[in-house]
Predict the structure.
Amino acid sequence: MTKRAINSLADLADPVRCPRLVVKVGSALLVDGHGPRRAWLAGLVAELAARRAAGQQIIVVSSGAIALGARRLGLDKGGRGSLADAQAAAAVGQIALSGLWAELLGNHDLAAAQLLLTLEDMEDRRRYLNAAATLARLLDAGAVPVVNENDSVATEEIRFGDNDRLAARVAQAARADAVLLLSDVDGLYDRHPQEAGARRLPLVRGITPEVRAMASNKSGSGMGSGGMASKLQAAEIAERAGIVLAIGNGHVAGPLARVCGEAIGTLFVPRASGRAAARKVWLGGRLRLKGQIAIDAGAARALGCGASLLAAGITGVAGNFSRGDAVAIAGPDGTVLAHGLAEYDSSECAAIAGRQSAEQAALLGYAPRSAVVHRDQLVLL
């Protein structure tokens, strides 16, 4: 029997349409100037426990470690004054954060499981598969995984920077059906929500340039690291895996009931139905690529028809990458059309760019491979 699609916010609470849900909780919801917002969090955990009792599997992506640790250590700027402050605050705060989730979930006879991930854990294929296997086993065992970025070791170069995108990547790895981002806004508006006449969009089908133009990069609380732009990036990551994503306001008692029961939020539905192959899901969601290959209009059309990328269609190569590295493939106007795993390193790609197969052996010193990026190792965006 084919599972019915998620078409409304109410469907997020339906264990038949949405058997596996990822819920992301922002820092400003968990922590205020006095410490953890225990009463609010206890109410949310009660809602999550009710979803579990109804047969829905839940994964939590929880911010708040830096904010909690900064308060404990007395660090200014919420612990974000420097990378060293953020790492120290996270090391202290993560203990308190995981303990809080374990206690409150335990009150409902649910076991909490802590996973700390970095960008590298999701970008490296083997580590990604390890994380996916751990999530699957925990869910099968009845636990509630509580995931956060490992901010105590992450640096500017190897971090997500916000838990919105982390939540989408976790959803990909866990093969979840939907992601709910609880934040400080009711959803996506057609302009800044404080402007006169601003209208909330209840449903968005695909992330287009027009949709991106509506985003604001500002985080209203000052505690978090993401704004609406990061949430739209998360929606794009989810979309590539056929996963729906919703944004709802968590600054209320019973936020799940408000989003799902009262339909107050924005639901992002993928334009294409169905899921891509697992490897392509991982590849399409990558946030850090080793280089970029520019192609001409003919090659762009061929990719759109399911072809591999051949050297003859390459017009330029940027970055320093090796065979097997993930690269972006950009069309004539610079728009990134696809991600793929390169069959050549960057210097070889540059040497054979624009050349036909018959010329490549002399340039490479060996028989050329069938493609620069094979269609089985390529995902269109």
